[in-house]
Design brief:
The protein has about 525 residues and is an alpha/beta fold. The chain is globular and about 60 Å long. The structure holds pyridoxal-5'-phosphate.
């Protein structure tokens, strides 16, 4: 026995040296230390600036050497929390009003910590019987909201990018069954797919990665409501067929990234039916309206889709990463992704599939627990209230814009995204772009709030949105005041204080002469 202990001694001392295995007291101490930081952070979010003021945004390069030995964990934790919180860019702030990234729910934070501790491996069912069942249940809960006649299937993804890539892979496999084994060459012609000019750029990326080539994505112009123009779509399909190309998928977007436009899904479905084409709905952001009985009609026709992208890490207040690919064709999903693997046990027929066989991933993190836990604790209705409230906030913001002396809506408000444009006729487009950039810089300068720029249908816009569950009327009022202050500080003078009220949901013509660009204002505009 002594002999055995002696032989094990080097191993034991090595593990003591590595010191990953903290004792219970240290674990608790560090855990409480972190909880204190997180709790203070959550408490601060309703008023926390998004980032430091412009003059304090100093980020020196980190050039220290790879640590050879360790340091005191409490001190290191304290230091990094301080740096990340004090000098960070805070997406969860209620003043983050520029893109579709949310404040995470607290239950999601707890779930993420639990997942990191338990580290379930969801690649194989046999090693994750309980975790895989929770994941499948989450997919079903969301999938059932789509309203398919058959049972929904699907998989958690890292986000909308992976979900769109996976949906295109499925559409290819459904249309050209040989492609999985024999590749694109077996098709013998160029496969093509379609999305609007406003559809997400992950589609271009996917086309390249799938070996289709980015030109296989045909971008279709949009109509006045920034929806994919259906007659143009049909004309493009006819032309491609004439040239011997093979249309295999149409991507309808439910909630475009820049303006929140929702394509006319029923009409696009009719085209898919007529030409035997897979219908994918990229609802990464907008499909969340399915949680609201009042607003789910906005994505009418989604139940005709073959597959749907739905990102809980956008409107459902999940931290990164949580995306979903949903489908009504489980068989195609499994055919696209399953690979025989002799070193892993295969899930028996009639049970849940192994996740590695329905997904582009292999080793797999449990990205579902945060959504599952949030839904168990708060229920669908909490999301319904969130969506309904944010829609009301956006509608009232749109009315403010419509009556503003300085701004007009550059696109119809459909979801809680607002595209603003300065009311200034007679300015060259490249100057409008620069003027918008200056306004955004002014609004973001003190770090309190954050909005972004976008180009919608080729036109520069100021992009604002409501995404945090903490954002209230007062945050929008602060943004409005700051937008007006930015115009004043840039020397934009309002000519008239009486601007006719405009219909917020109509695309507004530019109002000639409502803002006078003084020489001072033009000096403030950086060169385009
Ligand atoms: C409509 C749409 N689709 C796909 C994506 C990509 O999603 P992710 O960033 O989660 O990969 C986005 C991102 O904003 C999006 O707006």
């Amino acid at each position: 026995m002594k002999d055995l202990i002696d032989r094990c001694q080097p191993l034991l001392s090595l593990s003591a040296e590595m010191n990953f295995d903290f004792d219970s007291q240290t674990r608790r101490k560090l855990g409480y230390q972190l909880i204190e930081v997180v709790d203070r952070f959550f408490t601060s979010l309703a008023d926390r600036p998004v980032q430091p003021a412009a003059e304090d945004r100093i980020y020196p390069p980190r050039l220290s050497r790879l640590p050879e030995t360790g340091e005191d964990p409490a001190q290191v934790l304290d230091q990094v929390c301080g740096e990340l919180v004090d000098n960070g860019f805070h997406v969860p702030s209620a003043h983050y009003l520029g893109m579709m990234n949310p404040t995470p729910t607290y239950m999601a934070f707890l779930a993420e910590s639990l997942v990191a501790a338990l580290n379930p491996q969801l690649a194989s069912l046999d090693r994750s019987q309980t975790a895989s069942r929770i994941e499948a249940e989450s997919v079903r809960w969301v999938g059932e909201l789509v309203g398919w006649q058959t049972a929904p299937s699907g998989t958690f993804t890292t986000g909308g990018n992976e979900a769109n890539l996976s949906a295109l892979a499925m559409a290819l496999a459904a249309h050209f069954p040989d492609v999985i084994e024999n590749g694109l060459a077996s098709i013998g012609a160029q496969p093509v797919f379609y999305a609007s000019m406003e559809g997400h750029h992950s589609l271009d990326k996917s086309a390249g990665l799938l070996g289709l080539g980015r030109r296989a994505l045909r971008r279709i112009p949009v109509n006045a409501r920034l929806q994919l123009d259906v007659p143009e779509l049909e004309a493009a399909i006819k032309e491609d067929l004439e040239f011997g190309k093979k249309p295999f998928c149409i991507v309808a977007t439910a909630g475009t990234t820049s303006s929140g436009a929702i394509d006319d899904i029923p009409r696009i479905h009719e085209i898919c039916r007529r030409y035997d084409i897979w219908l994918h709905v990229d609802g990464a952001y907008g499909a969340a309206v399915l949680f609201s009985n009042r607003h789910r009609g906005l994505v009418r026709g989604i139940e005709q889709a073959d597959s749907v992208t739905f990102d809980p890490h956008k409107w459902l207040a999940m931290p990164f990463s949580a995306g979903l690919l949903l489908t009504r064709h489980h068989e195609v999903l499994e055919r696209t992704f399953s690979v025989a693997c002799p070193y892993l046990q295969k899930a028996p027929a009639g049970t849940l599939p192994d996740n590695r066989n329905i997904s582009a991933q292999w080793s797999r993190r449990m990205n579902s627990l945060k959504l599952w836990l949030t839904l168990r604790v708060h229920g669908r209705r909490a999301y319904e209230r969130l969506i309904d409230r944010q829609m009301r906030l956006a509608e009232s913001f749109a009315r403010w814009v419509a009556n503003s002396e300085y701004f007009e809506l550059a696109a119809p408000q459909v979801l809680p995204i607002l595209n603003l444009r300065v009311r200034a006729a007679d300015i060259a487009p490249q100057n409008i772009d620069a003027l918008h950039a200056s306004i955004i810089e002014e609004v973001n300068r003190d770090g309190q709030r954050w909005i972004s720029a976008a180009t919608v249908n080729g036109q520069s816009v100021i992009r604002t949105m409501v995404i945090s569950y903490l954002t209230e009327e007062r945050h929008i009022k602060d943004l409005q005041a700051s937008l007006v202050a930015a115009c004043c500080s840039l020397g934009l003078e309002s000519k008239s204080s009486t601007v006719p009220a405009l219909e917020p949901n109509a695309v507004q013509p530019t109002m000639p002469g409502s803002i006078q660009l003084t020489p001072a204002a033009l000096e403030n505009v950086p060169p385009a």
